[in-house]
Amino acid sequence: MNYNIELDGRKHRLSIQPNAEMNGYRFQLDGQSCSADAQLLQPNVLSLLIEGKSFRILFDPRPGGAAIVLGERRIPYRIDDPRSLRSRANVDANDTGARSIIASMPGRIVRILVQAGDHIEAQQGLIVVEAMKMQNELKAPRAGTVTRVAVEVGATVQAGKVLMVIE
Amino acid sequence: MNKKITKILIANRGEIALRVIRACRELGIASVAVYSDADRASLQVVHADEAYRLGPAPATESYLRGDLILEIAQRCGADAIHPGYGFLSENADFAAACEAAGIRFIGPSADAMRMLGSKTRARQTADAALLPRVPGSVRALESLADAKEVARQVGYPVMLKAAAGGGGKGMRAVRSEAELSEAFENARSEAERAFGSGDVYIEKLIENPRHIEVQILADHHGHCVYLGERECSVQRRHQKVIEEAPSAVLDEKLRARMGQTAVRLAQAANYTNAGTVEFLVDADRNFYFLEMNTRLQVEHPVTELVTGLDLVHLQIQIAEGQQLPFAQQDIHLRGHAIECRIYAEDPENNFFPSPGKITRLLHASGPGIREDCGIYEGWTVPLDYDPILSKLIAYAPTRAMAIERMLRALGEYHVGGIATNVNLFRRILRDEGFRTANIDTGYLERLLAGTPPRREGELDSADPEEDTAAVIAAGLFEQSNFSAPVSEEANCAPVSAWKAAARREALLS
Fold it and tell me: Angle formed by the axes of helices B144-154 and B177-195, to 10°?
C-alpha cells in the first residue's frame, strides 16, 4: 500500500509491506527501508517499536481535523490515498469580499449587538455567544457593513454556523 | 442534631458529584444522584445508588431547581443534601428551604451563608471582624451611574465582581471609565445566567497579587480549625488553572496569622462545616480578605493530600453533629500537592470551549497521582455546563518532585476527540517562573502573551526518529481505518484486525 503523507509541512512517500510472520511491517519511507513492530492496543492507540525504540501514538479524530498524537505533540496531517475519504482536502468557502462571521464553537446566542445595514468598525463587538457558562464576544475582523444577520437571540448554534455576513 | 445520616442526595453533576458519591459509599451512606437530560449517561447516575431526573439541560431548568431537588429528596427519603460547588451550593434560600423541610444541608446554616456567601455581605462581616480587606463597595451596584460613582471614589483600575459569584464568572477588570459601561453590562448578564442574580459590586484592583486561600472546618460545638493554605495564583480570566498546597511563600508565622484570621471570620458568622477564606497577598506579604466560599472547593484535594484528611467525610460528620476529631495542634502539613484542572477548552484557539465526544481516554496513575474525574470514553461533554472534565493531582515530598510527577502523569494522560488544556500545563510546569514559585494572578496572562508556544504539531527536526514514527503511524492508521475498521463498540481483540489486515495485504501482494 502506498501513501503520500504531508506532515508538519513536509511531504513523505510511504509504502507499507506487511510481514505476516510477526505483527510487523516493512516500510519504505522516502526511499529508505525500515521495519517496525506495530500493535494496535485499542482503536486509535498504537504501540510502535522501531529498532527497540518505543512510541505510543494516538490517532485523534476531532471535528476540526484528525491528527497524530505522539508524546506531547498533536500533529495534523494530510494523507493521499485515492480510496481514502480523509484525503479530501477541506474546501473553504471562497472569500468573495463578503466575510462571514462564523461560530467557532457550539453555543447559544446571548446578544446581537448590530443589525443588518449597520456600518461597523474593525474590532467592534458583533455578537455574544455563550458556551459552558463563558460568554465570548465576536468582533468584526474589519470595518464594513452588516449585510445579513443569520441567527436570533436564544438560538443554539453548532461550530461552523454562519452567524452574520459583513461586506 | 446528633443523628447519623443514612442517605445523601447530591445536588450536582460531574466530577464533584462522583467525589461525594464515593465518600458516601466509603461511609456506608446511600447516595442519590439527580441529573438533567444532558447528563442521563453521566457517571454520577451510574455510580449512585439511586438517580432521578430533574429536567432539561439548562441549569436553570435542572441543577438550579431547588424546589424539584427538595421534592426528590423528600420522596426518596434522603436525610441530607450535599450541594457540591457551583449551582445551589452558596444559595442561602435553598439551604433555608432544606432546613425547613427537615433535610440537612451539608454546609453552613442559611444565616451564616447570608453573612458570608454573598460577596457584599461578606465584606460587611469582615469589616465587623476587623479583617484587612481590599477597598471597594460593600453593596450591589444599582445602576451604571452608581458604578461610575463608586469606581471614581475607589480609583481606577477596579474589578467588577458578581455578588453571588465564583469561578471568575461575572467578573471584569476595568481600567478606565470608558470601559465601564460594556463591562458592567457583560458582568451583569454573565452573573445573571451563571448564578441567577445579576448583582455586581466594585473593588479596587490590586496589581499582581498572589491568591492564597485558607481552608477551615468548623463543627457545631464551637471548634474551628484551619487546614493550611492553597495557593491559586495561576489563573486565567480569574479562573484558577493550577492550585497547590502549601504556598511556597508562606512561612509558619504567616500561615498561622492568616489561618487565625480566617477562623476569626468564620466564628464571627457562627460558621459551620467546610469553608474557604480567600486572600490576596501583595509583594510585601500583606494579606487582604477577598471573599469567603461557603462550600467545598474544586481544589480541596490538594489540602486533603498534604493534611491526610478527607474533607467530604468530615463535612458529613460535622453535618451529623459530631465533634471535629482533632484540634489545631494536630494538623500538620506534609509534602506538596499540585492540581491541574483539565478543561474541555482549546488553548490554541483562544481557549474556546470544546464540548463533544470523548473518543479515547487514557488515565494517568502510579505513585502520588490522584484523578478526580467525571468523564469516560464515549461520553459526550455537554455544552451546557462548566468545561471541567477532571482534576489531576500530584503529591510528592517536595514541590520540585510534585512538578516532575505531574509532568510524568500528563505524559500518560490522553483525552481524544476534543481539545483540552493539557499542553498548557506542560508549558506552565516547565516555566522557570512557575518552578521558582515566582507567580501572581497576572502570571499566566503574561506567560501566554510571551513567546508563543511551538506551533501545534510542529516536529522537532532534531528528532528524525519521531518524524519517522509519526509518518509510519499515519500510514498504519489510514490502513487500519480503511481496510479493517475497528468497531468502537465491539470489544473484540483489536490486534486481530491488524493481523487480518496484514494477512489480507500479504495475499494481495
Answer: 120
Question: Are B274 and B20 spatial neighbours (Cβ–Cβ below 8 Å)?
Answer: no
The pLDDT assigned to A83 comes to 52
User: What are the chain B neighbours of A84 within 8 Å (beta carbons)?
Assistant: 478, 482
Which DSSP state fits B323? P
Q: What is the pTM of this model?
A: 0.80
Nearest-angstrom CA–CA distance, B406 and A138:
35
Beta strands in chain A, from DSSP E residues, in sequence order: 2-7, 10-19, 24-29, 32-42, 45-50, 53-60, 67-70, 73-80, 99-102, 107-112, 119-120, 125-131, 134-139, 144-149, 156-157, 162-166
- B172-201, pLDDT tens digit by residue? 889 999 999 999 999 999 888 888 888 999
Band of residue B49 on the pLDDT scale cut at 50, 70, 90: very high
Q: What is the pLDDT averaged over residues B401-407? A: 98
CA distance B229 to B246: 6
CA end-to-end span of chain A: 48
pLDDT of residue B1: 57
Q: Which of B359, B414, B478 to mutate to test the interface with A (most CBs of A within 10 A)?
A: B478
**Least CA distance to A77: which residue of chain B?**
B474
Compute the nearest-CA separation of B457 from chain A (Å).
4
Q: Cα Rg for chain A, rounded, in angstroms?
A: 23
Q: Using the Cα atoms of residue A74, residue A78, residue A84 and residue A90 in order, give the sign of their dihedral.
A: positive
User: CB under 8 Å to A149, separation ≥6 — which residues?
Assistant: A112, A114, A115, A116, A163, A164
Could you give phi then psi for residue B322, rounded to 5 degrees?
-75, 155
**At a CB cut-off of 8 Å and minimum separation 6, what does B232 contact?**
B211, B212, B213, B240, B242, B243, B299
Cβ pair B54, B63 in contact under 8 A: yes
pLDDT > 70 fraction of chain B, expressed in percent and rounded: 92
Among residues A82, A87, A97, A162, the alpha carbon closest in space to that of A126 is found at A162
Q: Is the pLDDT of residue B329 over 90?
A: yes
CB contact under 8 A, A25 and B502: yes
Cis peptide before B157 (omega within 30 of 0): yes
Question: Mean pLDDT, to the nearest integer, of A52-65?
Answer: 86
State the ipTM, two decimals: 0.75
